[in-house]
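Whether sequence alone determines local backbone shape is best considered at the level of individual chains. The sequence in question and its structure tokens are set out directly beneath this paragraph.

***
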Amino acid sequence: MPDSNGNEDSFAAAVSEVSERVSVLVRDELELAKAEMARKVSSVVRGAVAVAAGAVFGVFAVVFGLFAAAFGLSDLFSWQYAWQGFLIVFGVLLALTVGAFTFAWRKLKVGAPTPTMAIDEAKKIRQTVSEKSSGGATVSEKSGAAS
């Protein structure tokens, strides 16, 4: 019911305007969040592509480095054919491979780690709690009374 100054209509209009502004503000914040996330995702994707390209170049660098080592060994020892250098590089790589797999096998055969100290402490706590709740006296008090 409006009063003589029309305050009810102006109050309703103010509530409506505040509601509209809040709605616009929320929509703008959502758009800003979308734009920010799109920029960050784009940056992460570009970074991942750069890492992948670096990994590919790194693999090729290792291969060419191994070729250079094989040819360098052949030249160093004045071998007539390069296959001797490649054979030495192959042997070194094979030894490194066997060593790495042996190390990994030894570390992985242990199995899943178990927190033995934590389990022992939990057992001691459970034992202490059960002793306290069963008779009120601890094991040391019971053994002292018996002697």
